[in-house]
Design brief:
This protein has about 425 residues and is of the alpha+beta class. It contains 5 helices and 19 strands. The protein has 2 domains: about 1-140, no CATH class; about 145-434, no CATH class.
């Protein structure tokens, strides 16, 4: 009996070990397929976040973005290894569901399904099973709070990082009237005019670029304090631990000659998330700065976007994409040599600017509420000079910019914020069930 039991146990244990190998192989491949689906969905959603589609009402833009997001999501997912080999593009499926009644062009969802039907078995072949199937699915969202609010849903605020300390009044920056149309509804955060996407300042109406308000960018009481708002001009944000902490890591080499924390905050990435909505509060810089703010801004921005001396140094907007989804061309000084004159979805020239509620505050109370963000492209044309040289308040020290994206929270957005994605104020997140 002992001999028989030993012989039987040998086969039983061997069979269990064999099956465990196949089961572990299946579970491992299933996890790999899920990672591939997650990566593809996030990459597809990021296309919408970075391209301006969530701020544009054009259905043509939506259709073009779908095609681009499908291509990017498929490429990213198919670069992942599942069961010992990379996925084929035919094993990746990309769809765009409208979840919860949300319109596609404001809060698009991207679903990616990955599948392998020929996962080989090892010991299960003794039962005639030579292949297994593994499938995974993931859904990601490009969350624009202004779109969610416009559809009557509860608005959750966003909090992007790498935000520049340029507090822009809530006025159409492409116009000239200080009482002009607001960018966002100050309460709901809804976008007042989606046609702003793709517009540029300076232009034929507003001949000024980005420059600082107050007297030479010095908002201290001794220099006249906080002056009235002007379209397209900004109040400098306070460079301190509570507002815009000075970045200390990953600063570009060209910033080595800078002398002010403000310049480091422009040229580098402020890692602290900047919140919008009911609980957001940020201060205008009312410390004494002097009259060099605009000169310092141009120098720091030129360092950020790799502009050295000539037009074409920095990246530019591809002239073939005048509406979303925007794509960008690498400039002559792009740090990645292979990116020069090649289309891309991201660029160091893309920056996020906070939009503040009006009025702007007083020297005694410089605190303002951030009600949204503009994502703009600095020095957007390959023929642009840096700085822009108008006959305006900042003389020759202004920067031209094109609006790529808008994300509004208003003063009504509450709750736990969703972290943004650096240069984009539109947050990307996985929303598929765990």
């Amino acid at each position: 009996m002992i001999v028989l039991v030993a012989v039987v146990m040998l086969f039983v244990v061997g069979a269990m070990a064999a099956l465990s190998i196949d089961v572990v192989t299946i579970y491992t491949a299933r996890s790999e397929a899920q990672l591939a689906a997650d990566a593809g969905a996030l990459a597809g959603a990021r296309v919408f976040a970075n391209s301006g589609v969530t701020s544009d009402a054009s259905r043509r833009s939506t259709r073009n973005a779908r095609n681009l997001a499908t291509m990017i999501a498929t490429q990213v997912a198919s670069q992942n290894v599942v069961g010992g080999r990379t996925l084929k593009t035919t094993e990746v499926t990309v769809t765009f569901p409208n979840v919860g009644g949300q319109a596609f062009d404001t809060n698009p969802h991207v679903t990616v399904q990955t599948q392998r039907t020929d996962l080989p078995t090892f010991f299960a072949r003794i039962w005639g099973r030579t292949a297994n199937t593994v499938t995974a699915s993931a859904t990601a969202e490009a969350y624009n709070p202004s779109g969610a609010n416009a559809l009557g849903n509860t608005t959750i605020p966003v909090a992007p990082i790498c935000v520049k300390p340029w507090l822009l009044p809530n006025i159409d920056p492409t116009q000239t009237s200080p009482t002009g149309t607001a960018i966002f509804d100050p309460t709901s955060g809804a976008i007042n005019n989606a046609t702003l996407v793709g517009k540029r300042w300076p232009n034929a109406i507003n001949t000024n670029g980005i420059y600082s308000l107050c007297n030479g960018g010095d908002c201290s009481l001794g220099n006249g304090g906080i002056t009235p708002v002007a379209p397209g001009a900004y109040y400098p944000g306070a460079i301190d631990a509570a507002d815009f902490p000075v970045p200390t890591q990953a600063l570009p080499a060209c910033s080595s000659g800078f002398t002010t924390p403000y310049q480091f905050a422009v040229a580098g990435c402020v890692q602290q998330p900047i919140l919008c909505g009911a609980n957001s509060s940020i201060n205008i810089d009312t410390t004494s700065y002097g009259t060099t703010r605009d000169v310092d801004t141009v120098a720091a921005a030129a360092c950020l976007i790799h502009y050295v001396t000539s037009p074409g140094d920095s990246d530019s907007i591809d002239p073939a994409t005048t509406r979303p989804p925007f794509q960008f061309l690498g400039g002559n000084q792009n740090p990645v040599a292979s990116a020069v004159n090649i289309e891309a979805m991201v660029s160091d020239s893309l920056v996020t600017i906070p939009v503040i509620n009006n009025p702007p505050g007083t020297p005694a109370n410089p605190s303002v509420t951030v009600i949204g963000f503009l994502q703009v492209f600095l020095n957007p044309s390959a023929s642009s000079t840096m700085p822009y040289a108008p006959a305006g308040p900042a003389s020759t020290n202004e920067i031209s910019a094109t609006i790529i994206n808008m994300a509004g929270c208003g003063t009504g957005a509450t709750g736990q914020p969703i972290l943004g994605n650096g240069a984009s104020p539109v947050a990307v997140r996985l929303i598929s069930p765990p």
